[in-house]
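ASSEMBLY PREDICTION REQUEST
Request ID: AP-0331
Submitted by: J.K., bench scientist
Number of chains: two
Total residues: 334
Priority: normal
Notes: Please return the full assembly, not individual chains.
Input sequences:
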Amino acid sequence: MQFKPEQYYRVSLERMRQAHMVYGNGAAFSLAMYCGGLAVESLLRAFRWTEDPSFEGRHDLSDLLKASRLLRIDDEYMRRKNASEEDIHTSGVTLRAAMNEVVILWHNNLRFASEASLKAFLNNIGRLKGVKGDPLKKNALDLLSAAQTVVNRGVTLWTSKTKS
Amino acid sequence: MDIKDKIISTLFHALKPEYVRLEDDDGISGFVVSSQFEGMSTLDRQGKIEHALQNASLTQKDRRRVLMIAGLTPGEYESVGARIRVHQVREMTGGEIEVVLHGGHSDAEYVRGTLNSQKGVRTLDPNPVPGAPGVLMSLRAKGTPANPLTREKAIAILKKDSYIEVMPNA
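STATUS: Completed
Returned structure:
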């Protein structure tokens, strides 16, 4: 199936909503995390495909980072809005921190991960240390918050792009 | 020195990382792996990376080419990162070994450094593979007459490095 940028954008919003629903249900944090990361991947694809329909994004770290033109578009958007260099800097660091969090916590193989294997993965990357309460819930919330930050910025940029 | 190499050099100086991998595909992206990021929030990691980049001698235009450099701990990289893939290790005439890898110049330099760290091993500058520039790189290495570098020995050295993956049938 071939998708257009607009479809990737729409599905990114849909996956983000679904991620929150699954998280709220409290029974499948690995699935919630998978959906949250997928929302970001779909959004990046929407922006990347707009510029370069030949881009063959695979679901790996390098390609996810390569597709992060959204971050550059953000700088350009803020400059057009006459934002100060300090605001642009703060916004850039916040957005990149959110993206960094997604890169650490999201992996395409999460779609096959049981809650037990998610826990093992989080343990391997040191994300269980010092967590009070359910560590899966905590990490799922971390990923969803980061994904939401990226998606929110994407919505602003997409809306401004389609208006112009 | 191009922008990517300038950034790699700056990151090495500022963060003393174990490994840096950047790609330039209409914008620079990649990751820097450092123990300094242990127990650090991603906001602080990005702050450190940003601070390092501010000290690099980059023009504003160059600076805008940087898309995203993720900061990872070695443990995170182990779980989510992509290693440098070595596709072929073969014996050439004159006791030389040719290593063909997937990646750019900085990846080839990393592999070269790994081989160079072995006593008596000398390497030549890496080169793009004809017909696949920007995709495959090749480099040659040689041992000494008393301690020659064989294909098996080269593979064993490369396999020991956690940032390199020697592909089956290499």
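REVIEWER COMMENTS: The first helix of chain A runs from residue 5 to 25.
SIGN-OFF: pending second reviewer
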